[in-house]
Please model this.
Amino acid sequence: MNVFDRAYDDPVRVLDEDGTVVGEVPDLVDDELVELYRYMKLARHFDGRAVSLQRQGRMGTYPPLSGQEGAQIGSAFALGDDDWIVPSYREHGAALVRGVPLKQTLLYWMGHVDGNRAPDDANVFPVAVPIASQVPHATGAAWASTLRGEDDAFVCYFGDGATSEGDFHEGVNFAGVFDTPTVFFCNNNQWAISVPRERQTRSATLAQKAEAYGIDGVQVDGMDPLAVYAVTKAAVEKARDPDADRPRPTLIEAIQYRFGAHTTADDPTVYRDEGEVETWKRKDPIPRLERYLRAEGVLDDERVAEIEAGVKTQVADAIDEAESVPRPGPRDLFEHAYAELPPELRAQYESFAATREEHGDAAFLEE
Ligand SMILES: Cc1ncc(C[n+]2csc(CCOP(=O)(O)OP(=O)(O)O)c2C)c(N)n1
Ligand SMILES: [Mg+2]
Model:
């Protein structure tokens, strides 16, 4: 199957909503399929616990990923060891597959500066909160890698809303012109906070935006992990091949839905219908893959129970580890952005320090 030779509005599918095979099943052995499933369960459980920690005041704002596990885990699974991911702020699942421990993700959302530094061997860029700012970075890093004679692919994640930003167009255009090994992975979860996909662009699809930049564009059912895996794998292999007979960059539009709020600071009930959420929940990537794996005899009740127990322990341990790290102090607010504080920030810092002294804040003074 050449996934790139199809209409922009014809998403690649492997499993239907019931887990029945409707496309070409990618070549993964049973252990890999179970691992894919386990990671999705782990990401889902982590997500629920992270929201709960925020609600209990044990963590800062957090962007939930539930519903998007198929896109995140399926795509990250398709990468080689030396490939890179360039995430937005919701890619905890993809980062996990690439070797960022859950503890690290928790630390980030707890406000620790160290949380934004992936382990050296994980090949994961820092979290990017400014929308689409990571797109030119992914193009640039991929171009640098080519200039160095390496053959690594760079998968850049961003949302539907990000396609309205100049950075998206600049990054994809440059990638087309310089034929960089970049895979632009758009998580079209239908909403940019409260702005629906229809108010984002008049284009019929996001995938077709690739046409303007002379690269391949393809839609995939983002809640079908096997389809996501197959499409990402094809895009990554093309990106790595300097002799490819098609442009190396690809724009993937992964159609999906976020089940929860945009972040814990958002209330989606004020802008979207409960019926819409229920419709998309029927496409949930986890039961879908589970049904397929049970039908294939790869999973049974016992194995599922074992996976669920393992996932719970892994998340509980990560929370314990993250919470045993001393909390960042207010002084951290003034560090790390500038080597030397500009005068206005220095004045703010001094005024803040004076109030801490007045309050006899020993912890602050000792920091
Ligand atoms: C440049 C910029 N403008 C505005 C914001 C505020 N903001 C944070 S998330 C978001 C919506 C992004 O939607 P989308 O790209 O679809 O990603 P999603 O969160 O749905 O994954 C906005 C507008 C921001 N972070 N950066
Ligand atoms: Mg979105």
User: Anything to note?
Assistant: The chain has two domains: 30-323, 330-366. Residues 30-55 form the longest helix (26 residues). The chain has a mean pLDDT of 96. The pocket of thiamine diphosphate (ligand 1) is lined by residues 90, 129-131, 158-162, 187, 189, 191-193, 262 (CB under 6 Å).
